[in-house]
Amino acid sequence: MIRKIVFPQQRTYLLELPEEFIGKEVEVLAFEVTDSSSTQGKVFANQSQDERLQYLKKALAPYRVDLSNYTFDRNEANDYE
């Protein structure tokens, strides 16, 4: 799978496909990611994958649940009393 956010400067765009795609049916989609008046989406799209991952970890940190001490008890889960 290839996923790439680009900011084309002209109507034509050259897409290079990996060797494993050759001879296979491939779907190509193009759509606007953000409203063109919004700059936040453009800034986020220009960040590296690691920077985006760090941003998402920080944004989702308040919703994380610590499951490090969780153990699943099959008998308790299937207890119908």
Strand % is: under 5%
- Tell me about the largest β-sheet: none
Counting helices, strands and paired strands, the structural category is mainly alpha
Radius of gyration from CA coordinates: 22 Å
Tally the beta strands. Answer: 0
Q: Which of globular, elongated, flat, extended, rod-shaped describes the shape?
A: elongated
Q: What string, H for helix and E for strand, traces the elements in order?
A: HHH
Architecture overview:
The protein is 27% helix and 0% strand. The protein is built from three helices and no strands. It has helices spanning 40-45, 49-60, 74-77. The protein is elongated and about 65 Å long. 0% of the residues are buried.
Features:
81 residues; 27% helix; mainly alpha
Blueprint of the fold:
Elements lengths: L39 H6 L3 H12 L13 H4 L4
Can you summarize this structure?
The chain is an all-alpha fold and 81 residues long. It has helices spanning 40-45, 49-60, 74-77.
